[in-house]
Request: fold
Amino acid sequence: MQAVPVTPPTATLELGTLAPPGARPALGGFFVSGMLLAFPGAILPAWQHHLLSDYLMVGLYFVTLIAGVVASVWAAPPLMAGKGMGWTLAFACAAASLAFLYLAFFSPPFTAWWRMPGIFVIGCSAGLLHTAIFHAISPMYRHNPAATVNLGGILFGLGCLAVALLISRTFYTYTAAAIQIWIAVVPGLFAIGYARTRFAPQPAMKLPSAGAILSELKSPGAVLFSLLLFFQFGNEWAIAGWLPLFLSQRLGISPATSILILALYWLALLVGRVAAQWVLPRVRHARLLITCALASVFACIILLLTDNPFGAVSGVLLLGGSFAPIYPLVVEKIGHRFPYYHPGFYNGLFSFAIAAGLLAPCTLGYFVWLLGVRVVMGLPLAGSLIVFFLLALIWIEARFSTLARTA
Reply:
């Protein structure tokens, strides 16, 4: 794997290097990406799954979504090389819009199997968007990884918040099909915008070889950071995928209200991303990571034990706020310790960790079917404890690495 140079923070950047043509519009694609990946968890009650116990089928929704994301990894580089950045972004958004229209047509009373192709296309669209966006904003990322990831996270969170609010506020007003038609409008508009946007030419990407990926196993730090990303992503998306069903079936909260509480979760993540922009330069990052990990454990315990809506809202707000700063902080540490890490494509152990972490809502389908809906909060609780343990191991490994270099 070739090293990707990281621009030192103190370097003077030429005008236009930080934000080449198309970089800022590309960053806006995170909003669409947030809508795509948050959609399955928010739409489940509208598809009447809160009235059913077909948890394995819900898990299959997420399996299909992730299969689409993974399938896009190999499709994105040739598309960008042959058609260009703008065409790839426009194509991804247009495909997502058509997928929502397809799902609108096959909403209940059609069986869930008819919706699988639409979910797969949504996953493919999200994967294409991620690859193209990260590739377009690479100069911004190399200059300031934490700030760029935070800004992307804010836009991503806005998309997640928007789709949850839209579904919750229209749940009793429109049919599931009509709601999805309204959602389809958003990526359709982005597709038109990207088709008219000029993007700076980018160097061709090369996917890492299997040998390059396996070589990372020699680095304990790389393995620990990958495991941390794996469990943190799993924690976040387990909540995002299953929270409305958990609240409806465990606490008897109405479907519209349970989706609204999901929107509060995304709002807490969003506010946390914004607050992190102010906090990061003023607080020791190791202390902030440990505090967030412990707070997430406490929030999961609240949600696991509560029997009323107030406890659910309190736990969700605390959980979202504690999750918010972890990912950008970890990515910044990866960028400093592993300069070859590049956000432009699914890359090495870190990329597999991110993709595998999104499998958490898939595996929850089996565990909920086997053990009951309470396990929805049990899995993030265990994951948060593991994240705290991994943070301690990373700190120890970093200390030993520093001693070895100075010896």
Remarks:
- The chain is about 75% helix and 0% strand.
